[in-house]
Specification:
This protein is of the alpha/beta class. The chain is built from eleven helices and 15 strands. The chain has helices at 42-49, 116-120, 123-136, 153-165, 176-182, 199-206, 221-230, 252-258, 272-285, 287-291, 308-316, and strands at 2-6, 15-19, 30-39, 66-74, 86-90, 99-103, 107-109, 144-148, 168-173, 189-192, 212-217, 231-239, 261-264, 299-304, 323-327. Strands 3, 4, 5, 6, 7, 14 and 15 form a seven-stranded mixed beta sheet that branches. A six-stranded parallel beta sheet has the order 10-9-8-11-12-13, with helices on both faces. It has a two-stranded antiparallel ribbon with strand order 1-2. Helix 6 (199-206) runs parallel beside helix 7 (221-230). The longest helix is centred in the middle third of the chain and has 14 residues, at 123-136. It is globular and about 60 Å long. The mean pLDDT is 96.
Length: 328
């Protein structure tokens, strides 16, 4: 089969599409999927550079955490899928290849209203967002949510899911155009992080001094102190990304006096059972919204499989709005 392969760790020029060994035939609860499209994530860039090794059992040099395709083989214990079914899902690596062997529990059926390309932009973003905002932070209808990097794939997914729940959503970005585009997805309050040196002051002003109930932070250390200032009493902070650094100093007194909860979460390295649980919640609570068109994937740009280098450069430029997808 053909796959995106990292010749040596470093820049995008080290990526190529090459022939690699096919996966073995599926056994037990495993499913063989012919991948039709696969989306890019920041983790792909980090792995390409040698900073984010794949978990044990997953390919070190074949990238890809999410995919959409059709079933071409099933193990004897598989009960939900058969050959020809359109499926999408998450994996800890190897999705940017023509064939992928995965667990049945990590797959969901693609709604009829989504193409393979659109479906590939869904799993990592929507499962991550749903797990962080609802399973971890327990966002409720009528509460307020602040999303950093709201124009990213996870940010846009969280925005739509929160609006569907009945929350008021604030979002930050360093790009005015991205904030304007987010309003089309339901963003209530836009905060330009490039212009506002202290976004916490803006949030307090917009909430009458109260602060927000939940923050989904895709940035990291550089926002940590202001995040605590932006939270309301009993607020919850969910840390998902570290592009703004991994180490921060903060006033513990703020966390204590407000009785804050701080969560750290990652999807890729979780045990299969935990990822299966997150996938099942996605199937129950998000899939109906996708099928009804109440939430939708945001696709920035589509690249042919062979143009994976350009796809990586697009993601690294920080100009993308939503997901970048490779079509096989």
């Amino acid at each position: 089969m053909k796959a995106v392969y990292v010749k040596e760790f470093g820049g995008a020029e080290n990526l190529e599409v090459r022939e690699v060994e096919d996966p073995p035939a599926p056994e037990n609860s495993r499913v063989l999927v012919r991948v039709r499209a696969a989306a890019l994530n920041r983790a792909d860039i980090l792995q390409r550079k040698g900073f984010y090794p794949a978990p044990a059992g997953y390919p070190e040099r074949i990238l890809g955490l999410e995919f959409a395709g059709e079933v071409v083989g099933v193990g004897e214990a598989v009960g939900r899928f058969k050959k020809g079914d359109r499926v999408f899902g998450i994996t800890a690596g190897g999705a940017q290849a023509e064939l992928l062997l995965t667990e049945e529990s990590l797959l969901a059926e693609i709604p009829e209203n989504l193409s393979f390309t659109e479906a590939a932009a869904v799993p990592e973003a929507f499962i991550t967002a749903h797990d962080a905002v609802f399973s971890q932070a327990n966002l409720q209808a009528g509460e307020t949510l602040l999303i950093h990097a709201v124009g990213s794939g996870v940010g846009l997914a969280a925005l739509q899911l929160a609006k569907a729940k009945g929350a008021r959503v604030f979002g930050t970005s360093r790009t005015a155009d991205k904030l304007e585009n987010c309003k089309k997805f339901g963003l209530d309050e836009a905060v330009n992080a490039k212009e506002a040196e202290n976004f916490a002051a803006v949030i307090k002003e917009k909430t009458g001094g109260r602060g927000v109930d939940v923050i989904l932070d895709l940035v990291g250390a550089s926002y940590f102190g202001m995040n605590l200032e932006s939270l309301a009493l009993k607020g919850r902070l969910v840390l998902v990304g570290l592009v703004g650094g991994a180490r921060a100093e903060f006033n513990l007194g703020t966390a204590l006096s407000k009785r804050l909860k701080i969560f750290g979460t990652v999807l890729r390295s979780r045990p299969v059972a935990e990822k299966a649980e997150a996938t099942q919640k996605f199937i129950e609570e998000v899939l109906p919204l996708l099928a009804a068109g109440k939430v939708k994937p945001a696709v920035d740009k589509v690249f042919p499989f062979e143009e994976v280098q350009n796809a990586h450069r697009r993601l690294e430029s920080n100009e993308s709005f939503g997901k970048i997808v490779l079509e096989l």
